[in-house]
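Homework help thread (please don't just give me the answer)

Our assignment gives two proteins as sequence + structure token strings and asks us to describe the second one. The first is just a warm-up. Here they are:
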Amino acid sequence: GIYDWRQQMAIIEGWYREYLGRSIRTTERAAWEARLRNGESLAEVQAYLLGSHEYYDRYRGNTQSYLAQSYENLYKRRPTALELTRYERMMQGGMQRVEVMKQMAQDANR
């Protein structure tokens, strides 16, 4: 990637604060460092965090709010109704949250 792993860890630590409202734990930091060194991309880490139970639980099961905020985190704007519906259908079709977030991240990076 364009960042070294220390810069990547700083980005991930920022996502923990922004998305989860807390600091990264020592064990989480060590796990992400290992995964980055083994080739995991920042986009995959971001999708994992946005697809996590901890992040989803912040929306108390409100899938629309969860997807809209995830979209805003990736795109820095609110989704249109059509964009939101696309990801809602993926989840309703049984796609796992992390996979929906990976798709959303891929769409954001096009």
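The one we have to describe:
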Amino acid sequence: PRSTLFPYTTLFRSSYINFMDKWTHFVMYGGTCSVIWWEYLRQHITLDKRKLFLWAWLAPVLMGGLIELVQVYCTTNRSGEWLDLLADATGCTIGAVIGCGMEMVRRIKK
């Protein structure tokens, strides 16, 4: 049995969508990173690249790595996967690219 927030239905079988779990990691972390950028840009006039790198990219990636380690060492029914961490980091990177695009649009509108 899987322990998830949502019931595991036939809709989510991996035979329908390859790497469904990795796509989920990618979308969740990319979305999180994009939202952090969006909120930062709404609240700040000038860009602090170091702060954005730390909180909108590095912190989510480290959190993803920590979650994978917790799954390995603190649970008996879950495993950590390097590909999950790679999907997290890729999602954060794409989220940062989207954030840079939002900043460019903001500058053009000024």
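TA reply:
I won't write it for you, but here's a hint about the kind of observation we're looking for: The CA atoms of residues 15 and 91 lie 23 Å apart.
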